[in-house]
Specification:
Radius of gyration: 25 Å
Strand content: under 5%
Helix content: 55-70%
Structural class: mainly alpha
Shape: elongated
Distance between the termini: 86 Å
Length: 116
């Protein structure tokens, strides 16, 4: 189906064989399909953040995910990855349980010193 198979041909050309504009492609192809399910407002930023966050949740290698989006790991994690509320709650709970364990260990150590 590819019209131009030369070594310097574009992989994803426009209908006229020129560079494909990401905004035109989004508007003409992706948003139309997303609109049918009520997501016509989605843009590339939303798609990037979704890919980054879901990849993070499913333990996709951060370097691989960053490469897929064309970014460094720092940009990928700092800019695009968002943690869900469940992960945030788990982190707070782990910290809270760790602090409780430390206080219990301190109390046991103090009690041991006092009984000697």
């Amino acid at each position: 189906m590819c019209v131009d198979v030369s070594d310097d041909a574009l992989v994803f050309p426009s209908e006229r064989g020129t560079f494909l504009s990401r905004d035109n492609f989004l508007r003409r192809n992706i948003q139309k399909k997303l609109a049918t399910v009520g997501l016509g407002w989605v843009n590339f930023q939303v798609l990037r953040r979704t890919q980054a966050s879901l990849g993070h949740d499913h333990k996709v290698d951060p370097k691989v995910a960053a490469d897929q989006r064309g970014h460094t790991i720092g940009v990928a994690i700092d800019t695009y990855t968002r943690n869900d509320n469940k992960s945030r709650l788990e982190a707070v709970t782990k910290l809270e349980n760790g602090l409780k364990s430390e206080r219990l260990a301190d109390a046991v150590a103090a009690a041991s010193k006092g009984s000697k």
